[in-house]
Specification:
The chain is α/β, with parallel strands linked by helices. The protein has helices at residues 76-90, 111-124; strands at 9-12, 16-21, 24-29, 36-40, 56-60, 66-72, 97-103, 127-133, 135-139. The chain contains two helices and nine strands. The strands form two sheets. Strands 1-4-5-6-7-8 form a six-stranded mixed β-sheet. The two termini are 20 Å apart. The mean pLDDT is 89.
Length: 141
């Protein structure tokens, strides 16, 4: 992680690492209780209000695994743009990167666009991109 102040980083080894906002939730299942760092990106690690950025970031303790999180209403494409911008600002680990959007309403009309963006993420950012409605559970390995 580039230039992130310790005040915005919370170490955790919880079995369920949660990020939630307005009925949207992502839970990282951590049965082995590995150590991770929860990073508050929006309004924390990235203070520039004009800059597009995602809400949160989960980083492994050795910083070889990055998981970008955007909890969004219905504007999924904007959420994806925020993830891209944050990866460019903070990303360092090209081998184990993941990006997630959890929205309240993921319209079927977005399906093709999301698939195209997922390909871009895989090629350009070496990242998986998952988009889900309301809740997402992710097992950490």
């Amino acid at each position: 992680m580039r230039n992130v102040s310790a005040e915005f980083v919370q170490p955790t080894s919880d079995t369920n690492i949660k990020f939630e906002e307005n009925n949207r939730k992502i839970i990282f299942l951590n049965p082995e209780r590995r150590m991770y760092k929860k990073v508050q990106v929006d309004g924390g690690a990235v203070k520039d209000t004009k800059c597009s950025k995602c809400d949160n970031l989960l980083v492994s303790d050795d910083e070889r695994e990055e998981r970008y999180v955007e909890l969004k209403g219905s504007d999924v494409m904007h959420a994806i743009e925020q993830l891209e911008a944050t990866i460019l600002m903070l990303g360092e680990c090209d081998e184990n990167r993941h990006a997630y959007v959890v929205g309240t309403n993921v319209a079927p009309s977005y399906t093709t666009k999301i698939q195209q963006k997922a390909l871009v993420f895989r090629k350009k950012y070496r990242s998986e991109l998952l988009v889900r409605e309301k809740r997402l559970d992710v097992k950490l390995y």
